[in-house]
Amino acid sequence: MNAITVKNLRVTLNQELILNDINTVFPSNKITAILGPNGCGKSTLLKIISGFIHKYQGEVLLEEKSLAKIKAKQLAQKIAILPQNPVVPEDLTVEELVAYGRFPYKNIFQANNKDDAAITAWAMEQTSVYQLKKRQLISLSGGERQRAWIAMALCQQPDILMLDEPTTYLDVAHQLEVMQIVKKLNKDSGMTVIMVLHDINHARLYADNVIVLHDHEIFAQGQPEEILSVQLLEKVFNVEAIVYKNEQNSEEIIFPRALLR
Amino acid sequence: MKQIQNKKCGMPIALWRILILAVLTILLVISLLVSISQGAVHIPISDIIAAFSGNTGINSQILLNIRLPRALLTILVGMNLAVAGAILQAVMKNPLADPHIIGISSGAGIAGIFIMIVVPQYSFLITPVAFVGAMAAAISIYILAWKNGIKPLRIILAGVAVASFIGAGISALLILYSDRVHGALMWMVGGFAARSWVHVHLILPYTIIGIILAMLFTRHLNVLQLGDEIAKGLGMNVERIRIFLTAIAALLAASSVAVAGLLGFVGLIIPHTARLIIGSDYRFLLPASVLLGGAVVALSDTVARCAFAPLELPVGIFMAILGAPFFLFLLRRQL
């Protein structure tokens, strides 16, 4: 079963080619990572499959239905997306922020009720920010804040969670924390996750499926351990890499060692 | 806004906010009483009570036909401009967005002045025409500032450009029809001299409709504060909501321009002060702006009326004296 299917996608912006000939699927209940060098169109691809950008040629299907035909609020009940560096009003608390995740379920006359409060609490527990719920967002560390944003996305009760570079600006511990939350959500509740990543090793360790973009096209897609090779790093990122193997659990990591000229 | 803690004086934040709204309501009532009792003739509270219970003495006449309509008008105009400013600050993502500064009031103003001095026989059309002018100015600002989304700085620059462009148009009208400008001149600075029940009836429906609509969209305003991407991700049709909310703000601004002229800075000072005391949640910020806006404009007009008695200053001058330093304070703090 595929959560999202992309057929013959082509995007141009001001006559400049952004994405070309994209044919791919995002499988349900799996974690898919989108990788590629800066400016290859990763974020644009994410914005298209989340319904932010409507100007494109080709077809994007959510399950079997064309994404363009789904109403914004219905889409927000299926897909939750966390963009890069969102801004926050100075005095917003974690709980207030997370509760905004119920917005897609409400018309202008409806306020949040008890059920919404329960879902909000559940979402905060999933990302371990429940004990911070009365704190203001600006008073939190980068990692805590990111977990609060993920909780807001979960509060939408989506089938698909999309994250745009969720670990950027975080220290290593907080990066791992975010990755483990994502993995746990996927394992426990079967949530489909699609995320743009920069870290090759995060993709290798946490993703089930990888799409590598290069020069506005798909360079490779498949299982991370198969396609994220030394050769791929050479061709796509123009770096020389070495593979290290952890003797204890046979995990492999790729270390980009030097720029290729 | 760091001083807004989760608990204030040991009570939960929601209770605290309700308490603030109650205090602001009392402030508004006091402003109304001060406004109707002060003036060329001082009217004691006992006479105010007498007037409302059917007394027809001279003080009652002054009260019911002159003071009360004027006081109510100042309150309604204050409410309109404060809510218009609060809405614009969220939809334009700009702390300096005030209908006066960014030219929306000027748009309403040029339309109003045109009617007043060129085709005065159509003066009953002044509010709808002012609304069209305000909306045209707002749309021009969006078009000029739009480039892959809305950036606060471009909005303010486009707004200043639109405001000065329209300002030139207003000056041209005043010079071309210099024999008829006296009324228009007073109107340019914003004031409430010689306003009566007619004006109250003119603005009241817009105030009621505008504030009810704005209150229905407080959650949209809250979500818009998180940025366009988050708002879209939560299923909001951002462009449509933005145009709709701008139209509400333009309607509120235009109807107050139609009765009080180009009264500036209310839409800047009031929402920010309200934000400082009650926080940025629009469910509370909007009612706080309504109450505070009414109270501040009523009190300012009373001061402007009485400070140099028997000479009466237009309240617009008084608001500008307060507002310009406040604008600079915000500029240093937030941009």
Automatic annotation (TrEMBL), chain A:
Source organism superkingdom: Bacteria
Compartmental location: Cell membrane
SMART domains linked: AAA
Membrane association type: Peripheral membrane protein
Principal cellular location given in the protein's record: membrane
Record-annotated ABC transporter domain positions: 4-240
GO annotation terms (biological process): iron ion transport
InterPro entries assigned to the protein according to its UniProt record, in alphabetical order: AAA+_ATPase, ABC_transporter-like_ATP-bd, ABC_transporter-like_CS, P-loop_NTPase, Siderophore_ABC-ATPase
Keyword ATP-binding appears in the UniProt entry: yes
Gene Ontology MF: a single term: ATP binding
Cellular component, GO, one term: plasma membrane
Keywords: ATP-binding, Cell membrane, Ion transport, Iron, Iron transport, Membrane, Nucleotide-binding, Transport
Pfam families: ABC_tran
Keyword Transmembrane recorded: no
Record protein name field: Iron complex transport system ATP-binding protein
Species classification: Bacteria, Bacillati, Bacillota, Negativicutes, Selenomonadales
Automatic annotation (TrEMBL), chain B:
GO CC annotations, alphabetized: plasma membrane
Keyword Cell inner membrane applies: no
Keywords linked to the UniProt accession: Cell membrane, Membrane, Transmembrane, Transmembrane helix, Transport
Transmembrane segments: 71-88, 100-119, 125-144, 156-177, 197-217, 243-270, 282-299, 311-331
Source species, domain of life: Bacteria
UniProt-listed PANTHER family: FERRIC ENTEROBACTIN TRANSPORT SYSTEM PERMEASE PROTEIN (PTHR30472), FERRICHROME TRANSPORT SYSTEM PERMEASE PROTEIN FHUB (PTHR30472:SF68)
Family, as annotated: Belongs to the binding-protein-dependent transport system permease family. FecCD subfamily.
Alphabetized Gene3D superfamilies for the sequence: ABC transporter involved in vitamin B12 uptake, BtuC (1.10.3470.10)
GO MF assignments: transmembrane transporter activity
Origin organism lineage: Bacteria, Bacillati, Bacillota, Negativicutes, Selenomonadales
Name this protein carries in UniProt: Iron complex transport system permease protein
Entry's localization field: Cell membrane
Membrane topology: Multi-pass membrane protein
Family matches, as CDD domains: TM_ABC_iron-siderophores_like
Pfam families: FecCD
Cell membrane as UniProt keyword: yes
GO biological process: siderophore-iron import into cell
